[in-house]
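Attaching the record inline, Q. Sequence:
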Amino acid sequence: MSDNRYGLTPQQQELALRVREIAQAEFAPRALEWETTGVFPEPNIKLLAEAGVLGAAVPVEYGGQGGSWLDSAVILEEVAKTCYVTAMATLGELGVQPRAIAAYGSDELKAELLPRIAKGQTICSICITEPDTGSDISSVATTARRDGDEFVITGTKALISRLDVVDVLLVCLRYAEPGAEANGLGNVGMIVVERERTGVGVSDGVQTLGGERLFTLTLDEVRVPAKNVLLGPGEFAKLMSAFNGQRCLNASISIGISQGALDHAIARSTERVQFGRPISGFQGLRWMISDCALDIEAARALVHKAAWNDGRQFPSRYDSAIAKVFSNEMSLRVTDRVLQIFGGHGFTRDQPAERYLRWARYGGLGGGTPQMLRDGIAKELYKAASQEKAHA
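Structure, as predicted:
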């Protein structure tokens, strides 16, 4: 089967093949190790940097490849086929973090951070979720108080990835200005915080179902220069459009997990013999395999449509929401079928089926839940209907 059917350019097909070869040779053999230990897969990130693909989200003038969201989606799908932990680690270098810095950072910030991100020398983490705040960014409680040429930041972030190796934090916060509201997006923004600054604290972390480790971040009167401001008061809405692209990448990981699971199921069904013949010859199983392929192909088409870039900075809210909801839920269906195809052995840890099912569960938790995104899809539909009625 050729990647041509997805409308990829020859360059994107070559990119997919290059990452696939690295992932299958280097990531797959150690996938269980990374998820068991929860250790950040630094060697894998370095391999991707050496292969010239880690800088796909970094502009060419800063040492990257200046790739589109679709380029990033292609890379992440191939990585996720073999190792969820590495896919989540790679997501940080191909998604919102470098693109937000490139789009909204000062020339000084871009020159300082982007070349190092492209080389895998600087690890960034975006810090939004708080103990009492998830999707509702308007309720963020972390504050930044102006003090001369500095901002003083105080607050707590929860369920943050990569903090065991992070160099730079992109912290969502509320600017504490005279008369500012205690909630709402009017004074919410983002500041870049270096990990080594005094007052930055990181917990030991907790292991997730998929193997990735998540941490609690504390910011206790952390001082940073005003030049580190990425988004000023009330500018956080700019980043909301960037999350549309991140949703495409989340969905591409769901697709990679599903495709990896299906590949294992096909191999397993041709090898396992029951009633004197391979189980791949039984119609009931063949239909399950076909249903997996139908789901994956549909999801991939939706993600590629949403991630396709024609000079636009970020994908649309509507397309990315549809792609993410469908892909996240599709991945659970496919990996559940695959475990069934493996039979009782699929329920054991020495076979890959249960691993893919666990990996698939994250998709609908990060980057916007299916429930929240369904509401957003409906809003877009009603808005379009209202506009059509107004022009009728």
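The longest helix spans residues 236-271. The first strand starts at residue 124 and ends at 127.

More tomorrow.
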